[in-house]
Amino acid sequence: MEITKHKVAAIHYTLTDNQGNVLDSSSGREPLHYIQGIGNLILGMEEGLEGKKKGDKFQIKVSPERGYGLKDPAMMQKVPVTAFGGEKVQVGMKFQTNQGQVVTVTEVSADTVTVDANHELAGVELNFDVEVMEVRNATAEEISHGHVHGPGGHHH
Ligand code: ZN
Questions:
Q1: Per-residue pLDDT of the chain (156 residues; tens, 9 = 90+)
Q2: Measured in angstroms, how far is the CA atom of residue 99 from the centroid of ligand 1?
Q3: Measured between alpha carbons, how far is 117 from 73 in angstroms, rounded to an integer?
Q4: Domains and CATH numbers, the chain
Q5: Are 37 and 49 in contact (CB under 8 A)?
Q6: What is the CA(143)–ligand 1 centre distance, in A?
Q7: What's the CA-to-centroid distance between 149 and ligand 1, angstroms?
Q8: What separation in Å is there between the alpha carbon of 156 and the centre of ligand 1?
């Protein structure tokens, strides 16, 4: 059975950037279960997985445009240090804004802090090593919920 729209696939994957740093991996965990063709995964992953079968091992290279998008300069802004209420702010710290958005501190000066609301993988070319562990039909209920049920999925 091939991975096509509305198939559930279980995959093991390791994600690295172009410098070879491992950013994420399912190694040592349950494989990732998802439904093909409904946006569970980034577009570049769904494209690379389309037509693959159980046991297939391969690599997928995903451009930022087909991954987490390009970095949007409009989502980076300087805020006054005083907005942090005396907290010692350092590069790499994450904060949640009043709107619920997660921002990362990218620069700290004497009186301003630069925060970035882009996804941390925005602008990054992604390299996935993938192995397909299982492919099956999604149930009608899974398709209507938009996620996998049972092993590796939702239990509710
Ligand atoms: Zn459900």
A1: 999 999 999 999 999 999 999 999 999 999 999 999 999 999 999 999 999 999 999 999 999 999 999 999 999 999 999 988 888 999 999 999 888 889 999 999 999 999 999 998 999 999 999 999 999 999 999 999 999 999 888 988
A2: 27
A3: 9
A4: 7-68+122-145 (3.10.50.40), 73-116 (2.40.10.330)
A5: no
A6: 9
A7: 6
A8: 7
